[in-house]
Structure formats: C-alpha cells, structure tokens
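Lab notebook, bench 4. Still working through the backlog of constructs that have no structural model yet. Next entry is a single chain of 69 residues. Request: give me the structure tokens for it.
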Amino acid sequence: MEVDQGIIRQIVFYGDFLAVSPMDEVTGALMGTPFRREDVGAVLDRFPLRDYFGTITRDQVLDTIFYVD
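Model written out:
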C-alpha cells in the first residue's frame, strides 16, 4: 500500500480468499480515499464484501489495513 499525505494512492490485496468478483473494483474505489479507518470502512460498505473477500469480515479487512505492531 502507498499512502501519500494521508491519502491512499495504491493498494493491493494478496491472498486466496475465494473471491468471485474482481478485486480491482474495491482497490480502485479505495484509491484517493483518506487513510482513516472510518473512511476506508465507508468505502468497503459500498461492496458485498463476501464476493471479494470470501469469509473474511469487514472488520478483519480493516484490522489488516490498519495493523499496528
């Protein structure tokens, strides 16, 4: 993921989550979004996430994007 001045410029999801829809629809919608959990969550809410992430939940996707060690 690339974030510049607090805006998502590029994002890619890797993994085998048994998606039935092309992931580029979600990643395209996320580009240009402020890198804040609530803003990213609002974008994810526009999609039937099961089609893109299988059994991975919205909160799990957000936890992965905003992971802090």
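Notes after review: Helices lie at 24-30, 37-44, 49-53, 58-65. The two ends are 16 Å apart (CA to CA). Flag for follow-up if needed.
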